[in-house]
Amino acid sequence: QERSSRLSAALLGEDSEISRDQLYELLKYAALGKCHNATQPSWCRIYHQSHLAGVVVIVLCETSQLHFYKFYLQFKHLRKLFRHRFTFTPSTNFLASLCGGGANPKPQNTAQGLTSTSSECIPKSPDLQYDPIIQKYGAKKQGLTSYTLTLEEQKRYDYPIKGSPKCRGYVSTECDQRRTDSSPLFGLDCEMCLTAKGNEVTRISLVDAQGRCLLNELVKPESTVVNYRTRFSGITRQMLLPVKTRLADIQIRLKKLLPRDAVLVGHSLNADLQALEMIHTSVIDTSLLFARNEGRRFKLKFLAKAVLGKEIQCERNLGHDPAEDARAALELAQFFIEQGPTKVAELNLEMLLTTEKLAEASQNKAVSQPQGCQAQQQWNEPPHLPKTCFLDCLQVAGQKPLLLGRQELDSSGLCQSNLSTSNKQILQRALAAVPLSTFSIIQFSLGPEYVTSHLLTGLCDKVRSKLTDMLTIYAGPFEDSFCLKSVKKEFGRCGPICSVTVVTETQQPYVCIQYEVLEAAQLAVESLNGAQIAGSCVKVQRPVTAAVLDCDVLIKELELDVENEGVIYVAGLKKSVTETDLQEEFSQLKDLETLFLPKDLQTGKHRNCCFLKFQRSQSAVEALEVLNGWTLKGSRLRSRNALASGHLWRWIRQMNRSPGKQGGNMVCETVEQLWHLEQELRREVRKLDQRIKKLYRSLQKNTLCVVLFPGVNSMHGPQPGLGLMGIKDDRGRSAC
Description:
This protein is of the alpha+beta class. It has 3 domains: 6-99 and 389-450 and 670-728, Alkaline Phosphatase, subunit A (3-Layer(aba) Sandwich); 142-339, Ribonuclease H-like superfamily/Ribonuclease H (Nucleotidyltransferase, domain 5, 2-Layer Sandwich), CATH 3.30.420.10; 455-659, Alpha-Beta Plaits (2-Layer Sandwich), CATH 3.30.70.
């Protein structure tokens, strides 16, 4: 019996956002299997990779998640073909980064004096507003509190969090005083050895804001050392023999040394705090502070040299010096705070890193070549950036990749455009060439006329307005003396509420309620319309606006979306209910696969709703019948089919937090032009959807297909990218 490849991805809820490295990880493993150090992706799993017929990546250039949901009804085939979806951050050179290259699209001459801040010595960038540092922090200088990690970021980057099950037994520094921009900074770094327990601290250094070393001690690990990692830690067996200091002693000393408003600074400081088994709420992580695209991070050694002009972690020394590393991280944070994001962005660190790698590669090549060949090759070969490593791996494996579209990678890994190629021509070439290639990248484009900043702003405002209207319901009329608290309580049983306002412009009062999730608003309309609430029989409806005229159609299509198959929404949970309670309570439901309990990003407390994902759609239907009216800890539950997947739920919250752009200063002719452009764009999207359908139908069974909306970096801020993926099965759909 022929074995089929299968794709599994747990992308329900907050896990639906991935980095560019994780996407690259998936494509590399799918194409190469276990060759060239390729491993199973950490965020999804491919079963029977060796049975894959091929890998096809379809890139819809100049598009983002915004385009998918603005033209959701027009992407009729695309949304029915792929069950798995995820989001990612946009990049300036998407094609090169997709293949694993880190090339900068605009090479520039770099300066010799890296630490100088004069305009003559710093490479300037015409696209400074697109720099990840500017996009993250803005252009203006801010105080140190603006650069400390939020609770959400600490959770995302695996920092020890108070109350987390993984941090039981951890010791708090008890630095709980409110931080200000004048709070003291302390640099911290640890060296670890591998023991039977895991990573354990064997040396710790703490420096103050003036760079003075307050603590620099060896620590005796509790468990047997498996690997001293001497090359990096500098620790040897002989060094630890006379040591009496234990981790508990260090924890006590740190608590005494740190003032109540201390801010700790370090490079990937989460690893140090985890090894110290300590919780500290206010941290600056320099590996995240100097932001990069695609979730990558600069090494401390590079930053120290490029920003501070200091050489650290020299190869002539045995291992790293934690005091030196702690001091370097501290000075980097001080530099960033004092100079501000713009000055740091002007250093053009990506270009400096590329230059450094080129110099190293050139030096290594010169050493490995016979002397007589070096001079001749320098004359015959123009200087260029290294080839992208993913394409190299494919070439070595004997798989010549196919690249079709308006952009191509030249020998340097840079993108070259050919605007004369149409989508129709690309499709014709793809239908003929894709079956002959095991790895293909096919690029379709909407065209430059559809990616103007005015059109993008207009689309963004319309999507935001539509989502707001769909999340909003009006209820009433009520008596003049009605109890608002009881109304809020009743409607709150449908899901988390964003805001409640009383409408007094009517003869009798109405209530306007905006929910945080689409399911809650829809549940309120379906279950509370005509109900007796606060002594009145109320009508519940959405606002009557142009944006929601097709709301019923959109709701129906969202329910039928393959990504929502087997997923139901449950509301009415009490605040005291934990995830463990829900697991136990719902364990009797047949074929339950995943439970997602959303949390408030600021407080960390869970919402009064959850999502349940079942292995089979029929099991979800049966669970709905059981759950409606189910009582949990005295609270009656309400449930319905899911409408918004994890990535869409996250995006709705971001859209609601983002301020809308004002377009009132546009002249009428411009507004009319934008309207015509939008109608033309709608037609182009339908054509694009048809072309993807044709291409997908031509693929062999067991082909992994990934469709990417790469995201857009615009003057109005980054619009996240969206990915859809699946392995084609016998029915022509993507297999789970």
